[in-house]
Amino acid sequence: MFDVIGFDADDTLWHNESIFTMTQEKFREMLSSHGPEVVDQTLSSTQIKNLKIFGYGIKGFILSMIETSIELTDGEIQGNEIQQILDFGREMLAAPIELLPDVQEVIDELSKKYRLLLITKGDLIDQETKIARSGLADYFTGVEIVSDKNSETYEKILSRHDIAASRFMMIGNSMRSDIVPVVQIGGHAVHIPYYTTWDHEQKHPYIDPKNFKQLKHIGLLPGLIEEM
After folding, report:
1. pLDDT score at 186
2. Domain membership of residue 76 as a residue range
3. What is the pLDDT of residues 124-173, one digit of tens each?
4. Residues 61, 51: Cα–Cα separation, whole Å
5. Residue 159 burial (C-beta neighbours within 10 Å; 0-12, 13-18, 19+)
6. How far is the C-alpha of 51 from the C-alpha of 49, rounded, in Å?
7. What angle do CA 42, 11, 187 make, to 5 degrees?
8. Domain count, the chain
9. What whole-number distance in Å separates Cα of residue 95 and Cα of residue 45?
10. CATH of the domain at 150
């Protein structure tokens, strides 16, 4: 049914969203006088507004936190508080890469039978660094770091690697980025949810559940592929 398997990186192969969640908790505490819901809502709307300018990733997140703090304090945020937000970003960028359970074994096993691609979105330097530190880079015949994932993005990637959509399977935690656009172009997809997902990634067009598979964890993937 397929010759090539694509893998998302963040929250599919290693923990990522949990780092954002912990940082956002620190940000709430810093602006505690404004209430957690107001801080979260303002930050979320600011992030979405800034996606086309800053893209996905830690740097855009930090810039959106600075903008949110300026907005909520009517410009009275102090320099030392902005420095604190910048320090949040440095901590996030330096956070160790923690692979999800079974990832190393599954990638090693599948790489012996299939051609593997790593397809991730976010800041180029940050993603390159994480991939290098993950210890998984050598398993992939190609790595694609993109600004966003949609049907057009996947069509370009598959064309560049001379892969027919019908012979491609994508594995990821985000319905919006990893599953829906691949199914839309005629590919196969397996959704492996992470325990927490940014609200923005949960908004997506409806697709028939019959057109993709869902697993509780990546350790079940080789068995599913064997069955297929």
Report:
1. 96
2. 17-94
3. 999 999 999 999 999 999 999 998 999 999 999 999 999 999 999 999 99
4. 9
5. exposed
6. 6
7. 105
8. 2
9. 26
10. 3.40.50.1000
